[in-house]
Amino acid sequence: MPRLTEINSHDALFVIDPQHAFVSPFNEGLWDKIKEDLFPRFAYRAFTQFLNSPQSPVWQSKGWQGCQEGSEESKILWETGPGIRQVVVFRKTGFSGVSNEFLQWRQREEIQRVFLCGGDTDLCVMGTLLSMIQHQIPVFLLADYCFSAAGEEMHRYAVIQAKRFLGSHGVLHGPALAG
After folding, report:
1. In degrees rounded to 5, what are phi and psi of residue 47?
2. Range of weakest confidence among 55-64, 115-124, 139-148
3. Is 49 in contact with 91 (CB distance < 8 Å)?
4. How much is the pTM?
5. Of these four, 34, 41, 55, 176, which has the most CB atoms within 10 Å of its CB?
């Protein structure tokens, strides 16, 4: 099982939906923890940015119209300018962050493994994880750096599901995250 101390220069951190719309009591302090604990360990960092639209499955199934392009809540929490090295933002309108642009970036940069975190564990993180498995991308879930807006129980259930897909070695917790 890899430890974060074993991260190499061809590994990437993939943070799902670090946006103002997804700051809540369910993830208080988590976004800062991701930035402080994980950013310094990865040469490559990528984020997804969920942009809701009438064609989005969230708009269609739940009627939620928040997080539209250009809105304050759709903005990324962190600066992505020149001071932040190797940051790429992939826009999405659905649950998975795996797009053609992501696949091309991964190939161009020769990314070997992806370490996944963010929210929601049971929706967009899981959708991205499953897409990565389908594309045969070596992926690890950083479970302690994920959350579900549906609550801790739903997060734990999603982590159990992730273990079914990845095996227990693919879901990293506490001691595996020690640096």
Report:
1. -125, 155
2. 55-64
3. yes
4. 0.93
5. 34
